[in-house]
From TrEMBL:
Organism domain of life: Bacteria
InterPro entries (alphabetical): MFS, MFS_dom, MFS_Efflux_Transporters, MFS_trans_sf, Sugar_transporter_CS, Tet-R_TetA/multi-R_MdtG-like
Keyword Transport belongs to the record: yes
Domain Major facilitator superfamily (MFS) profile: 11-400
Protein name: ACDE family multidrug resistance protein
Pfam families: MFS_1
The species this protein was found in: Pseudogracilibacillus auburnensis
């Protein structure tokens, strides 16, 4: 007979599978875009749309998914979302395999993946808050969720390159397989509440009023966390884009070797997220100061990018940046998940997820533009954003 601890452990594994799959579904394609350009006979701008359309669609649909999850239940939104994500990958894969000009249909498949992503990963945060009544358990689980998210980033360049070495469009077909595994785990390993514990769903007017009440009472620290989340993702993905290009353009390091080097600092982010989630428990004051210190680490690392032009130095700097961001993210997740009533938790955490997706989408193109100028411009702007995030954490996150 399965005991309660085993049930919780398997439920956490099921939850952690969602951000892992969503991250793989997007990041796995980044290192193989140059090959897609050749196979599909498209430009670099067109290939960038394969990545961008995923994030843009997710940003648009995330708030709707949050509302639906609050009204109808987390699993009732998450499971169809994962199925839609799998269908999107299947469409993109079949188009690449069977069609002579598959680019437009691939984009349609990516749109479906983005819609699915909007109802999958962002729902994980409120579901953790629903499942774990003890703040220490919720914080530890959110640390694992962030770790899983980062592990996806670590694996993406390696797995994407390995699958492409077999068949160039195989990464598209891998997504339905991953999604099917996650759906089965969520169905069988995450239990629904008993019917007598379910509250009557709120009408939209009541629901909207509750959200307005939440922002009226908590807007200062909520908006601060939204902005900090966006800035940290902006810095992380901007820095990752910069490092990826520098390794290839200046040091002639590409393919799986480049993926392995990029995995080193991302692994530091994973470890920092996991350890932070374990340590913060329900200590809100500790969450604030770890967030602030993590932002300081990230800010200091981007401020010294231009001091030395060597790939070992850049990896070390990115390692420090990743560790700092890894410290901050579980704290932000816990603050926003455990401080809100469950009736609006899905909507508020969805707005937070949207802000993070904005940072993910904006970081690489912004850094691409800045890299054409003097490197000092990139350093100054990233440092400025880090200073802003640090100020918001210090001034506006007040645990009392």
């Amino acid at each position: 007979m399965v005991n309660q601890n085993d049930e919780k452990r398997w439920a956490i594994i099921s939850l952690a599978s969602v951000p892992l799959i969503m991250t793989l579904g997007n990041s796995m394609l980044i290192p193989i875009l140059p090959l897609m350009e050749k196979k599909l006979d498209i430009s670099k701008l067109q290939s960038s749309y394969i990545i961008t359309v995923y994030s843009v669609v997710a940003i648009i649909f995330i708030p709707l998914a949050g509302y639906l999850s609050d009204r109808f239940g987390r699993k009732k939104v998450m499971i169809p979302a994962l199925i839609i994500t799998g269908i999107g990958g299947l469409i993109a894969g079949l188009a690449s395999w069977k069609m002579d000009q598959p680019y437009t249909v691939i984009l349609i498949g990516r749109v479906l993946q983005g819609i699915g992503a909007s109802g999958a990963m962002p729902i994980v945060f409120p579901l953790v808050g629903d499942m774990f009544r003890r703040d220490s358990e919720a914080s530890a689980t959110l640390g694992i969720i962030e770790t899983s998210n980062t592990v996806g980033k670590v694996l993406s360049p390696i797995l994407g390159s390995a699958l492409t070495a077999i068949i160039w469009f195989l990464p598209f077909f891998s997504i339905p397989v991953f999604c099917a595994a996650s759906v089965l785990m969520i169905i069988f390993l995450i239990k629904n509440k008993k019917k007598n514990e379910e509250e009557e769903p709120l009408r939209f007017k009541q629901y909207w009023q509750l959200i307005k009440d939440v922002f009226r009472d908590h807007k200062r620290w909520l908006i601060a966390i939204f902005i900090i989340g966006a800035i940290l993702m902006f810095i992380l993905f901007g820095f990752l884009f910069y490092l990826s290009n520098i390794l290839e353009d200046k040091f002639d390091i590409d393919g799986i070797k480049k993926g392995l080097l990029l995995a080193i600092p991302l692994l530091a982010l994973s470890i920092a997220s996991y350890v932070t989630g374990k340590k913060i428990k329900d200590n809100l004051t500790l969450m604030k100061w770890i967030t602030f210190i993590g932002i300081v680490f990230a800010g200091c690392s981007v401020a010294v990018i231009s001091f030395m032009d060597h790939f070992i130095y850049l990896l070390i700097i990115f390692l420090i940046c990743g560790a700092g961001i890894g410290m901050a993210l579980p704290c932000l997740d816990s603050l926003i998940t455990k401080s809100l009533d469950k009736t609006v938790r899905g909507a508020i955490t969805s707005i937070y997820s949207s802000m993070r997706f904005i940072g993910v989408a904006a970081g690489p193109p912004a850094v691409a533009v800045l890299m054409k100028q003097n490197i000092i411009w990139m350093v100054c702007i990233l440092t400025f954003f880090a200073l802003g995030a640090g100020f918001l954490a210090f001034k506006n996150i007040n645990p009392e």
